[in-house]
Amino acid sequence: MTREITRPGTRRRIALVASARYPIREPFPGGLEAHTFQLAHRLRGRGHDVVVFGASGSDESLDVRSMPALPPISAAARSDVGMPADWFLAEHHAYLSMLLDLGRNEDFDLVHNNSLHYLPLAMAPSLPAPVLTTLHTPPTPWLESAVRTGDASRLRFAAVSAYTADQWRPLGADAAVVRNGVDTTAWTAGPGGGRPVWSGRIVPEKGPVEAIRAARTAGTGLRLAGPTPDRRFFTEEVVPLLGGVVTYEGHLDHRSLAALLGTASVAVVAPCWDEPYGLVVAEALACGTPVAGFARGALPEILTPGCGVLVEPGDVDALAVAILQAATLDRAAARRRAEAHCSIDAMTDGYEALYERMCA
To answer: Which residues form the Glycosyl transferase family domain (predicted)?
Structure first.
């Protein structure tokens, strides 16, 4: 049975481990960085002493302790035919160095691992403080290996949805559910009425192509917003579909994206993989914008018939119908759903309760 955590916790000194690859700053590279930014600020606002370990170049307000950069690799090492990619080595060096330092540091009550790297799990037994890992993704080979070989007595897990918790549980990670949240004072309700919006990383698994095709079939047009980390996909698959009432609005900061979502009649969410949570859904609901999407991953947990219309995954024609249906839903109901189930305060309550349990 899924355990839901909602009880507030006690003030703690927390080491919050973030991504070593991407700086935590707007416009955020993805939902993980946005999540870390919001959680760190909200925990500090509640009196916790939070030290964020992350990539250099992060937002100055976080006062991030930058993870060490990879020193120059010797010519002898580079001649090794098994030499891994530089980015892999850089991440490995950053986390290894940071965790070795944490192993010598007795000042923290707990370590909250908010990264996707295997080393914080593998090295948890060497740390003086207990380690909580938030599972943001489905099982991946490196993380799965670390979970299976880890010291169960030193590992605690949270999952961003019941769907994700169920995926990890057979592997030995019995995760409490603490759903992601958004700041409903920043993501505010808008008037709607405009062309639908699709937002997120513009990569194949997020389904921008499917969203465009559905919107053209529905005759509504579409505005896309988000980073383009896969330039080949964006240039070859997405750009040829743009034009007329289908436009790319750029990679927006949260304020600009909230304004865009608030003017949309519908938010289109067309994942081609099983979304572990779907932060874009929470953002849309907070802006009072109903959602039309594929029923994959955690989306059915977040949406109710009053604020969204979900159809069979991959069915573009059905998604086109869903866009038209979602536009008739009550925007106030979408906003209420976000306030009750998708807020940053509810998420922070959940983590505080876990911290208290771990440090008891």
So the answer is: 199-335
Q: Does residue 79 belong to any structural domain of this protein?
A: yes
Q: Phi and psi (nearest 5°) for 112? A: -105, 105
Distance, CA of 235 to CA of 239 (rounded, Å): 5
pTM attached to this predicted model = 0.89
- Answer yes or no: do 245 and 259 share one domain: yes
CA-closest candidate to residue 42, choices 57, 62, 28, 26 = 62
CA of residue 281 relative to chain centroid, distance: 11
Q: Given this model, what pLDDT does residue 105 score? A: 83
Confirm whether 26 is domain-assigned.
yes
| Cis status, amide bond into 130, omega within 30 of 0 | no
The answer to whether 120 and 99 are in contact (CB under 8 A) is: yes
pLDDT at res. 153: 67
Residues of the chain with pLDDT under 50: 1-7
- The amino acid present at 220, given as its one-letter code, is T
The neighbour count for residue 258, using CB atoms within 10 Å, is 21
How confident is the model over 64-82, as pLDDT tens digits?
999 999 999 999 998 998 8
**Domain enclosing residue 289, as ranges:** 197-341
> The domain spanning residue 66 has which CATH number?
3.40.50.2000
Q: Can you tell me the distance from the alpha carbon of 263 to that of 348, in angstroms, rounded to the nearest whole number? A: 29
Same domain, 302 and 351: no
Question: How many alpha carbons fall within 13 Å on the CB side of residue 238?
Answer: 30
Distance of CA 293 to the CA centre of its chain: 18
Q: Choose among 340, 241, 328: nearest CA to 291.
A: 328
Question: What pLDDT, on a 0 to 100 scale, did the predictor assign at position 152?
Answer: 65
DSSP-based three-state secondary structure for 262: helix
Two tokens, residue 199: 């937002």
Tell me the percentage of the chain whose pLDDT exceeds 90: 88
Report whether 140 contacts 116 (CB < 8 A): yes
In this structure, the number of other CB atoms found within 10 A of the CB of residue 44 comes to: 16
177 and 250 within one domain: no
Integer Cα distance of 280 and 182 in angstroms: 10
The residue behind tokens 């010598």 is 104
Two structure tokens written together for 352: 């505080």
